[in-house]
Amino acid sequence: MFISFPRFSAVCSLSLQFADQVFNVCTLTQKSNLKRLNSCRRKSTKMAAMAYKLAINSNLNTNGLLSPPPNKLQSHLLPSNKKICGRRILASPPLSLIRSKKSWHGSLRLSNLSQSSASNSFDVVIVGAGIIGLTIARHLLLASDLSVALVDAAVPCSGATGAGQGYIWKAHKSPGTEKWELMMRSHQLWESLAKSIQLQGMDPVEVLGWKKTGSLLVSKTTDESSILKRRVEELSQEGLRAEFLSSNDLLSEEPELVLDKEGGAAFFPDDYQLDAHRTVAFIEKGNRHFAVEGRYAEFYHEPAIGLVRHGNSCEVGAIQTSKNTLHSKKAVVIAAGCWTGSLMHDLIKQPDIELNLPIKPRKGHLLVIENFKSFKLNHGIMEAGYTKHQSATLKATASDSGPVYNAQDLSVSMTATMDASGNLVLGSSRQLVGFNTEVDESVINHIWKRVGEFIPALRHESLEDLRQSREVRVGLRPYIPDGKPVIGLVPGFSNVFLAAGHEGEGLSLALGTAEMIADMVLGNPSIVDAAPFALLGRCFH
């Protein structure tokens, strides 16, 4: 039976006005549950009685979990297709805490401590406030009583997270690969989070930009179509809904997508997409709820500049930022995206540790046409050769202010979708050009032309005429050569963890990654095998 322990004693002491601020789930046997509930009932206030009534009277659902109660003490639970006896299952804080219009600016400090060295002491310090760092903070806050500090040189959504297209897809993953289980677990957690929001009476589309659009992987040639047919068969055998649609079939499913008879698409109706900015805002506000308990603080616009060791030990005791020394009592997590490699080199500075963290920035452009009315797309769309299509046509002369390209510098493949706000989102490019984040108009033009090869209606639109209603997103994906993120303990340290290298899959894999890191920090067994993502043998020798 599942009920809100071990923080139940905190529930007993809180007043009713904070009832909906109490959120956590853990597992206990029914016998011990009743014993502790009866003890609290004898000692506690009206709040404890309310919690007692919830625990005793709530019906168990088909998974043996308590169904979410329609009252202030929200105990929203996430279903799982794995055996999770004794494990904590997380959803989201009550949305009454999250939907405040209040703006937050600058760094958030612990509210009940003076500005002294004590106020800068936390159980866990996380460097990096992209979707990976934010969700790790969220999971630790919900799964434990630990305090968390979140550090970033800028603010959330200023890196790869804010420039993402928001696809939460299974379509382009292969069963049996090392990322498959992590992807499946992460998607399960995303779906459960959206469901928990819905159970709280809110619309996941409004809160997360969450849409079940389904996905179309599109082929233009006979060979590509054959590959997609095999993928459909492979994923169908894994229990996923999938079918291959001919070019004629696509006319009814996605009328604006026009292909020759050799073409077609693999259709996966259960894929989703979300809006990164809405999702980050939701998670960030949920994390900030824990600031009132003295368990959460943000240190934005504070680059991390050093690790502070406990003497000659392998334990890191603090992160030095440009403004503060943030003491860590339990763990340090580095989740700084494409900056993780250079940051670790700068932070470690230890001759006894040989570091080779091959994470590089891979620049990407997305073109967003706001409030697009000319036509609508029903699904998320991506061409089958997304990672292979190379541009050999884009060149720049020596007199141009922009960079010079050759065939290996730029990869452009068609992606297209409509987001929750009715914007047309088109992509996508990939370039290994360092940390440059300037908009390149020649790349935008190339994206426009490439998408027009699949969606001919765009050929009747002038990109120049749409300049006033367009937004260009440029982000740096954390690219790693073997295609697997690095998630785990840093060799040579007892309490420093890395979570980076997700490239274009940060949003998709975020919740699974967060759960994995939190389990490592808390000493819990991992639901997904973490061995394929370990640093030893890949980044340290």
TrEMBL record:
FAD dependent oxidoreductase domain span: 123-520
Which keywords does the record carry?
Oxidoreductase
Which Gene3D superfamilies does this UniProt record tie to the protein? D-Amino Acid Oxidase, subunit A, domain 2 (3.30.9.10), FAD/NAD(P)-binding domain (3.50.50.60)
Tell me if Oxidoreductase is a UniProt keyword of this record: yes
Q: What is the superkingdom listed in this entry's lineage?
A: Eukaryota
Q: Which Pfam families match?
A: DAO
Q: Name one GO molecular function term.
A: oxidoreductase activity
- Give a short account of what the protein does: Required for the assembly of the mitochondrial membrane respiratory chain NADH dehydrogenase (Complex I). Involved in mid-late stages of complex I assembly.
The name of this protein is FAD-dependent oxidoreductase domain-containing protein 1
Q: Which organism is it from?
A: Solanum stoloniferum
